[in-house]
């Protein structure tokens, strides 16, 4: 049984399986891929979560963007090597099948549902908020009970009952109004986010009718998106007050690192273009180029816009859902604020398109391997898209977006994505060890880490001992139960670094993939323990499904 669980697929076998009549249209070039990558990355993160991140970390949040981008560069290089070696749909799922075997491939495929389908729920909810705000600017008011998750309204009502109207914030008052004005079935108010559900249905229809149509729509929306961001940067520069950048790090390192989930969410998506490998004209050449290009472009835009926002307005004012529009309202430039609100709707829609493209192709590949029901691999005879998987993705995104809060999904999405990124970086180490890298048309630059990984571990502890006495003192004073509950992920990080140092010395590991593993693992350790508990529950559900269906129907299992 153990052998079956960890049986790997060869690169040649995966490519042969992909050529068995799937019939996906090969229409995408480098420009299209870069456009899709930017569409995925520059979405709800830059248009909403950047405000909360700046509020918590101050102007120094721009450094966190650089740090997270640094982690993503190493991961992007690993993805690029895999994409050039295994040019088929499936992304990290397929790569894990090559490097670690079937069980890990299933786990990654299940985790990718969090990255694509679940994160798209966040994007849909964010789109709804901007859309409703835009309509209000034109004097069109959607009933509040039709445009929010019921949890917000229920929380506002409970807060009103316990503390009175004076304790309610502006958003709480909107939620209370929704609760009181909503139609009822008995004593239960009917409240849901209709715009979020409708946009998901419309985008699902778009990606259902064809990759080329989706790509054209994405290109137009990306042009609008980049234009408005450049306009915000150029226009906002005239309102920057350098004194707003002081203090640069008002809440210290903990304040900056506390925004890891929000900042990382702004980068999620660069890997999604690897799911379109079978629709690329030249995937071995174009996918690596596109992945690196879109990541570099977005990083420059993020850092610039963060500095402009925190320069225009003091960071304490940025805890808002529409920060790009808010800063221009704050400085009295209402016309620009209106333009930003309108174009933000277009910008966030483009992110929805890419994620709705990515998830069905993961499921299609898993189905082709026998791990999911055969219908998930069905390709529409006319539109040449994974039809059934696309419809299921629409349902999976639309239903939660109608009823759930956005903040529930942000951290959960980040945990699943970090997990996938770490395994992809580790997969490159395995490819080097097994000699598979020789088949790669693009390779992560090799830097011998035999001594450097261990020296880095020692140097990190020396720096911590010399400059982190307060941190060490905090650890010493914490009870063991507190360490297990709140610091266990950091313990895992240090143990992983030590193990990689030993293995790197023995097997001459390449430094860059190891660096990617360690940075992603450290960023994971900054997420709350509750998110990890939910993620582990999610994985447990996935394993139950695998052993109930996938293990028995796997093509590799049938070949025995």
UniProtKB/TrEMBL annotation:
**What residue intervals traverse the membrane?**
33-55, 61-80, 190-208, 220-240, 252-270, 290-316, 336-358, 383-403, 409-430, 451-468, 488-505, 510-527, 533-551
Gene Ontology MF annotations: amino acid transmembrane transporter activity
List GO terms (cellular component aspect): membrane
**Which subcellular locations apply to this protein?**
Membrane
The membrane topology term of the UniProt record is: Multi-pass membrane protein
User: Is Membrane tagged as a keyword?
Assistant: yes
Keywords annotated in UniProt = Membrane, Transmembrane, Transmembrane helix, Transport
Domain named Cationic amino acid transporter C-terminal is located at 511-554
| Superkingdom of the source species | Bacteria
Tell me the protein's name.
Answer: Amino acid transporter
Give the source species. Sphingobacterium gobiense
